[in-house]
Amino acid sequence: MVVEDDYDAEYRYDRSPVGALQGLAPDRVVYGGSISKTLAPGLRLGWVVAPAWLATTLTEVKHWADIAEPVLDQVALAVFIETGALDRHIRRTAVRYAERRRALLAAVAAHLPGWAVTGVAAGLHAVLVPQRPVPPDALDAMAHVPGGLGAIPLSAYAQAGRSRPGLVVGYGSVTTDRIERGIAEMATAAAL
Description:
single chain; four-stranded antiparallel sheet
């Protein structure tokens, strides 16, 4: 069995989404995801496409693991999908998020010229990595800029002593002008 979660499938900015493995081997792949990024994390709704031989077992396990599913939320999501409203929403927000990513890249180039934006051009966050050594206290100062972009040092995602310097910066919930100001403020904080 392969369990597949194409985490950033809805929001890829530099190329078309990669096809799901599930379509290549529907009897061997369980394909799942959530609508946390596309709609709202608070809805706590996800989905699974499973082989027919496994569907009944997964349904039973889900029922006993969480007997109080939010039925109204599920019905509303089903209508959203059936009417095409979810597809229209994703296309509209993908344009908005791509614009925000471009603003982030431009702001980093302008205000943090010794930094690179790494990773796949997808999702709602980016990883900023300095190209030369940066003291840990400068990274902390950048992450704690008041009203900043929700930057988190890479060290928060690593085992002790095994992290490279850098920041994870979220851009999904901020405007392009706020991205510009936030990166400028982070550059100022790093220089202090």
